[in-house]
Amino acid sequence: MTKARRIFSSPFGSALLGGAVVGAFFWIAVAAGWIGAKSDSPASIPQPLATPVASKESEETNVVNQIYRHDGQGVAFIEATEAPEETASPFNPFGEGESSGGGIATGSGFVIDGEGHVLTNNHVVEGATKITVKLGSSDATHTAEVVGTDPVELELAPEEEEDWGE
């Protein structure tokens, strides 16, 4: 085997040869004008996604902090209480029921209009008997009621269902 063939059959030699081929193609593409900026077009300057505004407390330009300072009072902390269900046990000779379920679900949401409607996920308020909301950094608690829901029901297609019996 020749020395060149032995070098290019090693991983390092193959990488070196591949890099040379890519470099040569790049040089040809630039020389042919396939790649590069056209001189007759004005130079474009990338713009930031959001223009930071200097905060009053400091000259920080953290956009996330600025958004929170501006809109944070519209963020809601939601606490939904679900009453436990009592079920009669066939094994209890005294006929007393056992309580199951219930508890507290918490979540977040945000105010969507001037009337105070708050948008949150359905699973936070589903089956709730009492809902309380705190807005922003306030400690004031407001009682709320569900005015609409949009539960998502996921169904598996027949080919996605697994046959657990076999």
Rg over C-alpha atoms, rounded to the nearest angstrom: 32 Å
Q: How much helix is in the residues?
A: 10-25%
Q: What order do the helices and strands follow?
A: HHHEEEEEHEE
> Given the C-alpha coordinates, what overall shape results?
elongated
Strand numbers in spatial order across the main sheet? 5-4-1-6-7
Question: How is the main sheet built?
Answer: 5 strands, antiparallel
Mean pLDDT score, rounded?
A: 76
Number of helices: 4
Total E-strand runs: 7
Global structural class: alpha+beta
Separation, N- and C-terminal Cα atoms:
59 Å
Oligomer: single chain
Low-confidence stretches: none
Strand content: 15-25%
Q: How would you explain this protein's 3D organization?
A:
By secondary structure, the chain is an alpha+beta fold. The protein contains 4 helices and 7 strands. The strands form 2 sheets. Strands 5-4-1-6-7 form a 5-stranded antiparallel beta sheet. A two-stranded antiparallel sheet has the order 2-3. Strand 2 (85-88) and strand 3 (97-100) form a beta hairpin. The model has no long low-confidence stretch (mean pLDDT 76).
